[in-house]
Amino acid sequence: MWLFFGSLLPYFLFIICKTRKSLHMLQQNYYDESGRYFWWIVKNPKKVWLELDIVFVFLGLLYFITFDISLFIFIGFYLGLTFFYTRKIKAEQVKKPLVTTARIRRLYLTITIIYMIITILIMHFYNETHLYLYYLFLGILGYLNYFIVFIANIINKPIEKLVYLSYKYKASKKLKQINIPVIGITGSYGKTSSKNIVNDILSIKFNTFATPKNYNTTYGLILTINNYLDKFSNLFIAEMGAFKKGEIRKSCKFVKPTHGILTTIGQAHLESFGSQENIQEGKFELIESLPSNGIAILNGDDPFQVDYRLKNDCQVYWIGVENHDVDLYAFDIQLSHMGTNFKVKFKNLDEVYEFNTKLLGKHNVYNLLDGILLGYLLGMNINELQRGVSKVKPIEHRLELKKLGDIHLIDDAYNSNPVGSKAAVEVLGLMPGMKIIVTPGMIELGEEQYNLNKQFGTYIADNVDYAILIGHEQTKPIYDGLISKGFAIDKIFILNDVKEAFPLMRKLSDGETYVLLENDLPDLFNE
């Protein structure tokens, strides 16, 4: 018996390696929130079912082999499997590695208990003549590791609920003690940019605190309040994201926003929301959660906001660029590769005021208008607002201009939506010299994904000299869009790894060269 259990050591070594990969995918799918991990398994049969350990099926042949030889075959099989699997993982491009949080550690414990129970049961009923059955059964369990992790996540849900409630209670108590105005920001696109821009403008006068990175779920807000928010802040700016209806309302019920900004309503996460109407209603949950004396700032150029029948009596203000029948609009917008200049007109003021920013692109003017109008309503004067806009810092991975040797990089890695991607390509088109785009396209757009990516390809064709596409299957619609516009085939390059794009862009560069890095898909979308 002990020889048999000794032979399982390489097997469990392999299970550790594979479990880490499975947990990485679970974490990137928000721990199966809204069934994201389950649907990732369903939609990625090649990644789930065509793993190296599929050859476990041959373990059934051990029925015809003697006990000693079976042990050596099993040991050699899983040692070799672990070696090749480890090499494969090392060769993969990992953009965001697994973060070993307390929740991940609890999942590791549950998974370990599952495998221990199975091992103990085998020990209890061990019979040498059934050796091949034990090996075959263990091979099946290893092969189905993604599902073992799925089951462990379900088992842990009651524990995670208790952890969540304790953290939430602590955060609620702290928020009540601090008792400061909360500015909620949501929308299909531009949430993080708007949050950072509003924070930079308001910080000229106020001691503001904004949610870090993309902590925009209810749980992210809880962590932010518990770990970062302090009593010295007098404004809390909370970004709010969602994958389905009800999630923003849940966040609002927790932080109780007094002010709300709705950026743009579009088709981001159309797949999980189910319909454009659901997206519209889901985003307006922020505005409809405001108190009667609350302040909402909406976009007068967005038909999904203008046409919505608001079920709230809060104070509503509008910004716009095309629409001038609003409380604040921008005009005479001058775009260049150095930044953006524009003029604004307040509805209740006679004067026209000029603003300058280092930010690139017309779409950022909307976010700046949100910050300008909110700052004005909170008591900032024009001089403070102008200084605030001029001091707004480029946002990390959102049209952030960088240098890579002689190449100018426009890092827009966080964008994955039709509006933002088009705006980024237009910014690239403003640049002098050679223009190259590197992109894997856009995701989570439901049935419209092919059409929107093909349309994206047509925008690229009008603005770039070379297109480097990442992922053959993912970028097929972009390729079709490029070809439909007569873009030269010899100027299109298709790679499977974004790392390969860097030596290629250096080879293609000629004199002053600008490269747009448009979108960087999470590891779970790697081909």
Described by the principal axes of the CA atoms, the overall outline is: globular
Mean pLDDT over the residues: 90
Strand order of the largest sheet: 2-3-1-4-5-6-7-8-9
Number of helices: 21
Query: What share of residues are in beta strands?
Result: 15-25%
CATH topology of the largest domain: UDP-N-acetylmuramoyl-L-alanine:D-glutamate ligase
Would you identify the regions where 5 or more consecutive residues have pLDDT less than 50? Answer: none
Q: What value does the Rg take, in angstroms?
A: 27 Å
Give the count of structural domains: 3
Task: Give the helix/strand class.
Answer: alpha/beta
The portion of residues assigned to helices is: 40-55%
The first-to-last residue Cα distance is: 43 Å
| CATH class categorisation of the largest domain | Alpha Beta
Q: Judging by the overall fold, what is the CATH architecture of the largest domain?
A: 3-Layer(aba) Sandwich
Fourth-level CATH superfamily of the largest domain: Mur-like, catalytic domain
Please give a structural write-up.
It is built from 21 helices and 15 strands. The strands form two sheets. The chain has a nine-stranded mixed beta sheet, sandwiched between helices. It folds into three domains: 2-155, no CATH class; 179-390, UDP-N-acetylmuramoyl-L-alanine:D-glutamate ligase, CATH 3.40.1190; 400-525, Mur ligase, C-terminal domain (Protein-Tyrosine Phosphatase, Chain A, Alpha-Beta Complex). It is an alpha/beta fold and 527 residues long. Strand 7 (328-336) and strand 8 (339-346) form a beta hairpin.
